[in-house]
Amino acid sequence: MNTLHEPARDLPVIHEADVCVLGGSCTGLFAAIRAARLGARVVIVEKDNCFGGVATTAMVNVWHSLHDTEGKKQIIAGLTEETMNRLDRRGAVKRHELTNPSRGFTFNSEELKIELDELAREAGIKIYLHTQFAAPAPLRDSSGRLEAVFVENKSGRGAIRARVFIDATGDADLAARLGCETYFANHLQPATACARFAGWGTLSESDVGALIREHGPAYGLPPTFSWGNYVPNSDVYMLAATRIHGINPANADDLTHGEIEGRRQVRAIADILRAHAPGCRLSLEALPSRLGIRESRHIRSPYQLTGDDVLSGHEFDDAIAQGSYRVDVHHQDKPGITLRYLDGTEEFHQPGVASTRSRWRPETAVNPTYYQIPYRTLLPLNGPDNVIVAGRMLDVDPVAHAAVRVMVNMNQTGEAAGVAAVLALETNQPLRALNVATLRARLIAGGSAL
């Protein structure tokens, strides 16, 4: 491979803070807000033009239930609940039944962008949008701590110095570039490109999924499901009906191919419906500015959360997040999805074929109604002692990942990382040495449900 030498140069330190968060998804922003609310000086770096990640730029306007599977106990609160309540006051949220396994809230993603801006502003966070994390500064041998990261934006290249760093990039970019041990699952769940349409009501008499299955092969579409929601208080519909197989979202060429392929599939679906649905008058209103990524790179941590931990409702002394969303495996090697529930039942859904229902374990007198995520899964095994991750790159096996990856769960890992960062600063301890009882108490005091 041909190479070029990039000359060394001194870079300006463009900002100094107590806590630096890389990645402005809801997970990353919630980390920043919780740290700022505890008095830390916080800076957040986001490569896109807004906060929210999958909920905004990927247009996935669904968050799942904040309650256990029976709807009897609230297991998630904090900034997830606060944000939905704020949107509710603007008529931008529809609430669903507490036990609905597929959705707890549907919301207006555009209103969410503005609300997240307000939350960040109120917290006094220093914000860098349109700013790309480039590399970590070299570690100082004497301390083993990360001192700064290099970023680049319209103003050029610069350094941000901080005392604690939170990797909320989604792909563990900071951890990987620090040389921390990372891995990819053998089965990376495929990505989806959503779209928003006006005129969806003109399809009321049509079976959209059946039309896509029937005519999709002629348009080069893989077998897939179609689902979606109306944007609250509007006639605009968010559709998720694409399936992008075989890409690694942490690879630039793969990600480029996936983005273009996702848009091609959206157009093909629109063409099918316009051609074959009587009375169809669809108008494509919006495309996502990023793919909906289900899985990418993971870190190695002191503990890997397993599918058995999730499905058995295993309790952890260092639990910092809870969830009740089912195991939801989108297959790469065959059409369809497998859903596995805490009550021991399992469903396999294949497009155009009757679903099958079975049991993954024998019936029991009592079933778990939620599961937990331990703090240890956020700590890079061989990383600097002032770096923590938040989001889907945590250390989980494929079955556990299929359940915990959804936004209401990952949002909590962000809040935990933000509070842990402040606790580490206050006690002058490495993140891996924190008293987890104190961490949990601080989370609860800030509104978390643990």
Task: Describe the SSE topology.
Blueprint: E1 13-22, H1 26-37, E2 42-45, E3 62-63, H2 78-88, E4 93-95, E5 105-107, H3 109-123, E6 126-128, E7 132-136, E8 148-153, E9 156-167, H4 173-177, E10 182-184, E11 194-198, H5 208-215, E12 227-230, E13 237-240, H6 252-276, E14 283-286, E15 297-299, H7 307-311, E16 319-323, E17 327-330, E18 337-340, E19 345-350, E20 353-359, E21 371-374, E22 387-389, H8 398-404, H9 407-427, H10 436-445
Parallel strand pairs: 1-2, 1-9, 2-6, 9-22
Antiparallel strand pairs: 3-5, 4-5, 7-8, 8-9, 10-15, 11-13, 11-14, 12-13, 16-21, 17-18, 18-19, 19-20
What keyword list fits this structure?
7-stranded mixed sheet, 2 domains, 23% strand, 450 residues, FAD/NAD(P)-binding domain, 4-stranded antiparallel sheet, 10 helices, 22 strands
Explain this structure to me?
The strands form 6 sheets. Strands 1, 2, 6, 7, 8, 9 and 22 form a 7-stranded mixed β-sheet that branches. Strands 12-13-11-14 form a 4-stranded antiparallel β-sheet, covered by helices on one side. The protein contains 10 helices and 22 strands. The model has no long low-confidence stretch (mean pLDDT 95). Helix 1 (26-37) packs parallel to helix 3, helix 1 runs parallel beside helix 9 (407-427) and helix 5 (208-215) packs across helix 6. The chain has helices spanning 26-37, 78-88, 109-123, 173-177, 208-215, 252-276, 307-311, 398-404, 407-427, 436-445; strands spanning 13-22, 42-45, 62-63, 93-95, 105-107, 126-128, 132-136, 148-153, 156-167, 182-184, 194-198, 227-230, 237-240, 283-286, 297-299, 319-323, 327-330, 337-340, 345-350, 353-359, 371-374, 387-389. The protein has 450 residues and is an alpha+beta fold. Strand 17 (327-330) and strand 18 form a beta hairpin. One of its GO terms (molecular function) is metal ion binding. It comes from Rariglobus hedericola. It holds the Pfam family FAD_oxidored.
